[in-house]
Amino acid sequence: MRPVDMPQRVPLLRRFAQIEGGRILSPPLPTSPYTLRHASPSYMRGYTAPSGGDYSVSRTATVRLQGTRNASVDHCPLFALIDFNRNASVSANEMRLLGENGVILVGSTDWVDGRGGDQPRFNDVSENLIYHFGLYTKQSCAVLSAAACQNTIERNVLFHGPRALININDGFGGANFFLSARAPARADNLSSSSGGTIVRQNLLFLSVMETSDHGPFNCWDRLP
User: What digits encode the pLDDT tens for the residues 77-121?
Assistant: First the structure.
């Protein structure tokens, strides 16, 4: 078949699944191993600068949660927790060949006042495989935290991205804890309730493939 005779497919959907609630208990999403691909690109749509770091972000994804409690998603790619989300679990996902970020945790504040709680908190991003992301938007990462806190990012395998693999875009919530697999035993006693986000026991390699400005972690200590 000649290329001119091949069928052409144009993606139209921006996301395939969305749970949006009023800060109430959310049922688990189906956990069968789905393959989700070919969502419409967002790089020509609206972006926002959520906090003091230099990243801007599109507040959407293939799977998007907003206003949920105790949601659980696995075996799905490209995930977004937007504004209020509590105790969500994003685990056992393979995400590859992504136009932008893998998992984003993005909240909102009233200027620099985040006391309203409209942010992702007490969520777990673990045991995911995220690679070959940022194909279109180069200011992207495997896991982005912006105006979010008290979350845990652990036991993920992240590699092959244009910039940092994990980006903490601000100092929201207080100190962040970056722990290696050989961290002392007392590190296990750290709780995300201490304020910052815990990042531990992740395997990171092949970062800043298209830039040379930092390394696998990028962390800004700025107010929202």
Answer: 667 787 888 998 899 888 888 888 999 999 998 887 888 889 999
Name the β-bridge partners of 57: 48
Question: What's the mean pLDDT in 49-56?
Answer: 82
**Distance of CA 59 to CAs 79, 144, 174, 188, 198, Å?**
10, 12, 23, 32, 23
- In angstroms, the first-to-last Cα distance of the chain is 54
- Residue extents of the structural domains in the chain: 15-20+46-219
CA angle (21, 94, 10) in 5-degree steps: 75
Q: Pick from 37, 54, 38, 57: which is nearest to 46 by CA?
A: 57
Strand ranges in the chain using DSSP code E only, listed in sequence order: 17-25, 63-69, 72-74, 79-86, 89-91, 94-96, 103-106, 120-121, 124-126, 129-131, 143-146, 152-154, 157-159, 166-168, 177-179, 198-200, 203-205, 217-219
- What's the token pair of residue 77? 């790619």
pLDDT of 36 reads: 67
- Residue 12 burial by Cβ neighbours in a 10 Å radius (0-12, 13-18, 19+): exposed
Q: Could you tell me which residue, 25 or 22, shows the higher pLDDT?
A: 22
Global pTM?
0.82
Distances (CA, A) of 98 to 64, 140, 148, 150: 15, 10, 22, 26
- Dist. CA 74–CA 78, nearest whole Å: 11
d(CA 222, CA 209): 26
